[in-house]
Amino acid sequence: MHNLDLLPSKLRIVLFLLIGYFTSCGIIAGPETEKATFAGGCFWCMEPPFEVLPGVVSVISGYTGGKEKDPSYEEVSSGYTGHREAIQITYDPKQISYETLLEVFWRNIDPTDPDGQFVDRGSQYKTGIFYHNPDQKKAAEKSLLALTKRKLFKKKIVTEVIGFDRFYPAEGYHQDFYKKDPSQYKSYRSGSGRDQFIESVWGKEKTVRFLKPSLDEIQKKLSSLQFEVTQKDGTEPPFENEYWDNHKEGIYVDRVTGEPLFSSVDKFESGTGWPSFTRPLVAAYVVMKTDSSHGMVRSEVRSKYGNSHLGHVFDDGPKPTGLRYCINSASLKFIPKEDLEKAGYPEFRRQFSDPAGSKVN
């Protein structure tokens, strides 16, 4: 829902609620999009890992699984309505699969907790996959079985696969809470135990956020040129850098934090001697700033969490965007398509073709 971020906050909240209501009723969900509904405990924590995925149109917090119509937060929090805090995802199945959404879901919850999630206790915080059709049910059950066979957990997996009935969007102040009140969100999350559990099971999984190391750590990690470009807004020489003529399939991530930034699908030959792209891979990780240095006014491109200097964007690119993201190789790390799962980016594998020429499912 990245385009809506440009709207005033109050208008954006109203649109979120309207979209959530109409999509939950099946009124505006066109054939090009589908819905997925997951309960994973506190919905504040379940929005961020899905909102950054390519192909996800919107993520709305709300309530599902109960019988009472249009419940309030207070009513659900009592535990007596039968509802669970949940998120409803509207996504483009041509860009991201339901199976990928399931994988992200599993990596952000404790599926062995029968009485809540982490610091939040009660039936309203129980996990669940609410399938919308037989295909989703089959995929969810298959995913659950596969996770069980991996034996990652000491306790039994208790997350339920349940038929979807109704979804009620939560109050406006709950939507995108991590953006509205980042200080309170970070305080709550750090004390909830969720991140500690995720790291203990999955390692330093990058589906939630990308933490920037200290400056000393960055300097030890990078070459002198990489440090100069990313941390001091430098520029590398054209035609004498790592990726300007790289034609392999894969994605380009932030050299410092690993944020997924660009894809070979959107890379083109600009003739400038630097890697050039028509668009970001995940718009949420690319930040634009005005650069008035060197007697010019340009649009600088930086990574969101790493705040790394990446390059600049110009309006002389090819269709469909007409943009040219001119990026320093020194700011990027390339991950070939065959290494995406191993490197922790399975959600991006789908956009590339297998050797036979068909898209990977």
UniProtKB/TrEMBL annotation:
What PANTHER family does the database record attribute to this sequence?
Answer: PEPTIDE METHIONINE SULFOXIDE REDUCTASE, PEPTIDE METHIONINE SULFOXIDE REDUCTASE MSRA 2
Q: Catalytic positions?
A: C42, C326 (nucleophile)
Q: Which NCBIfam families match?
A: msrA, peptide-methionine (R)-S-oxide reductase MsrB
* EC number(s) per entry: 1.8.4.11, 1.8.4.12
**Family note:** Belongs to the MsrA Met sulfoxide reductase family.
Name of the molecule in the record: Multifunctional fusion protein
Enzyme class per UniProt: oxidoreductase
